[in-house]
């Protein structure tokens, strides 16, 4: 296993057993949060998925409030960027890596 985050030392068996939950964390972070509490690997990716979700909510609130520029420029570009971050997170989880997402991955809400 290739661990990119020095804080997280997930076991190879943990990665193998919870890779699906880690991938799912970028689509529905709540499911791995409830179903794989014992997995450090799944919890790491659930944290990344939660931060991605919160960034998505914040971006959409701001782009809705700011007239015209927010609707036509900020919202679409920011949502595209967050979609790309979700793809990167899914690829990291599928590859068994604990690599933080660019820009937002350094935040930690869920203890893993």
Structure description:
This protein has one domain. It has helices at residues 12-24, 30-35, 40-65, 69-94. It has 112 residues and is mostly helical. The protein is elongated and about 50 Å long. It is built from 4 helices and no strands. Helix 1 packs parallel to helix 3 (40-65), helix 1 runs antiparallel to helix 4 and helix 3 (40-65) runs antiparallel to helix 4.
Précis, in short:
With 112 residues, the chain is mostly helical. Helix 1 packs parallel to helix 3 (40-65) and helix 1 packs antiparallel against helix 4 (69-94). It has helices at residues 12-24, 30-35, 40-65, 69-94.
Helix-strand blueprint:
Layout: H1 12-24, H2 30-35, H3 40-65, H4 69-94
Helix pairs in contact: 1-3, 1-4, 3-4
Main pleated-sheet profile: none
Q: How many β-strand runs?
A: 0
- Which range best describes the helical content: under 10%, 10-25%, 25-40%, 40-55%, 55-70% or over 70%? 55-70%
When the domains are counted, the total is 1
Distance between the termini: 17 Å
**Mean pLDDT, as a whole number?**
89
**Tally of helical runs:** 4
How would you classify the helix and strand content by structural class?
Answer: mainly alpha
Could you name the ranges where pLDDT drops below 50 across 5 or more consecutive residues? none
Principal-axes geometry comes out as elongated
């Amino acid at each position: 296993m290739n661990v990119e985050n020095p804080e997280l030392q997930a076991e190879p068996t943990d990665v193998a057993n919870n890779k699906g939950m880690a991938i799912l964390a970028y689509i529905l972070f709540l499911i791995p949060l409830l179903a794989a509490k014992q997995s450090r690997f799944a919890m790491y990716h659930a944290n990344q998925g939660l931060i991605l979700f919160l960034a998505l909510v914040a971006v959409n609130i701001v782009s809705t409030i700011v007239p015209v520029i927010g609707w036509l420029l900020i919202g679409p570009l920011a949502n595209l960027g967050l979609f790309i971050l979700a793809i990167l997170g899914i690829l990291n989880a599928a590859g068994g890596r604990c690599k933080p997402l660019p820009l937002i991955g350094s935040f930690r809400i869920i203890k893993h």
